[in-house]
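Intended use. Records like the one below are meant for learning the mapping from a protein sequence to its folded structure. Do not use them to infer anything beyond what is encoded.
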Amino acid sequence: MNIFTSLLQLVGSLGFLLYGMRLMSDGVQKSAGEKLQRTLSKITGNRIAGLFTGLAITMIIQSSGATTVMVISFINAGLITLTQSVGVIFGANIGTTITAWIVSLFGFNFKISSFAIPLFGIGFFMTLLKDSRLKNSGEAIMGFGLLFIGLGWLSDVFKPGHPDSFLTEDSLNFMKSLQSWGALSIIISVLIGVVITALMHSSSAFSAIVITMAYNKIIDWPTACAMTIGSNIGSTIDAIMAAFGSSSDARRSALIHVMFNVFGAVLALAFFNPFINLVIFLTPTDNIAIQISMLHTVFKTLNTLLLLPFCNQLVHLSQILIKDDQKSSSKVYHLDFQEHVGKESAAMHIIRLEKEIADMTDVATEMFDRLQIGISRRNQKFIEEHIESLEQEEDYCDQMHEQLIKYIIACQSLSITPNQHTNLNLMVGIIEDLEAMTDECFAAGMLLQKSIEKKMKFPQEDMEKMIPYVELARQFLQFIRININKHLNEDKLSMATELEDSIDLYRKNLKKLARKRLESGADVKAELLYLDLVRQIEKIGDNAFNISSLLAQTL
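Structure written out for the chain above:
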């Protein structure tokens, strides 16, 4: 019964430890995560810049898994390239060692409850405040407190002789015998590190367990080193899961993450004794908790220094091992909402949405460019070269419209801020207008096709008068394309209003001219089609103005 109670104590302690880490990471990501993720999504520098970006972000959010999942998500969305991601992944691996340092420096040098419980209380009362930033910071502080409460209980569970410890004399003897099997002991310890870390989805949490066991002399120094090395392989589980169903480059990024950690582990095991002796030499104390943290950092840093010059070779190897996606002959849009990617932070999904909306804007602009060619040429060649493409692009945007709306609904089920909720609702309106814009482009293209096939005649001067009108609409679309996903200030909204007013004025003048031609006996069918074409262009301008108004409301 005592062993059963102690095992429950172990499970509870691990629960507090893991939940504390998760709460701390989530709180930081909610308060600063969106800015960090936007910084990551726009990285364009070299491998060194990527290295320091990954290092900084991971040190702040306390999770290399979260950083790597972001990287994979952004590669899948086409926001960053595979080559750019390599440095970030290396930096994230070094940044994740910060948690082990926090545990080793603070977890065993103070009476944990003396500051962990007050921290939790302060954090809780901060979450009651109205300011969302203070709420998120309070959540992070609560997580910090829970982490150390769980660590304190975990230490008791692994402390021989403590009432809550599950370690009996028999289990201690077994642990001692396990550590006396030489090289086999090291291999078993590595495997334990791989399996438990993969199950826990946190190398930081397993490092805390290893540090606790080593501090209480349950395991010796070589065993602790081997388990820590194994945990680095197990930590790749999040990247592997995030890569399921993603693009070939996203899967390659996950593979590079795995290769980085496996290569380091194999190298460390090949030179095991020299490696752990180097760690002891670099550690200015005989405190085993600090020695394990130093090992974690030295392992990641040496691995990075060895592999950083070979980023391009790693990318090439990953391309050999994972082939390019097979491209479909038909244009089919596909957007999956990956629930295991950024469940607790909607920022990553919102960044993905912004990229897709920008892509939809590009398609709408391309459709209008085709339409402009048709208005200027109005010949059989236009039908042959552009009508089929207009139809495919319109169908593609219909697919985008449907799947993007579903994606937004999925995002709204996550934990989002009031500002994010507002912006998501505004995105719905933007997508609706973009889809309507593509419908208008296609409808105008069909009118042009009809006029060509029916051999309708329009006076040359009338078509020339339409060219500035169409050019105004094209300028408006380019304005939207440049400013999509940005907040429009008053000056830019005034520019949009001027464009809308100019289009409306041109439309009135063109309609007057068409009526005069009808009164003078012009071809009724041709003039009605001309009026319909003018109306379609005006609707495109209306859609562009609606999008401008929505962008002005974004927060």
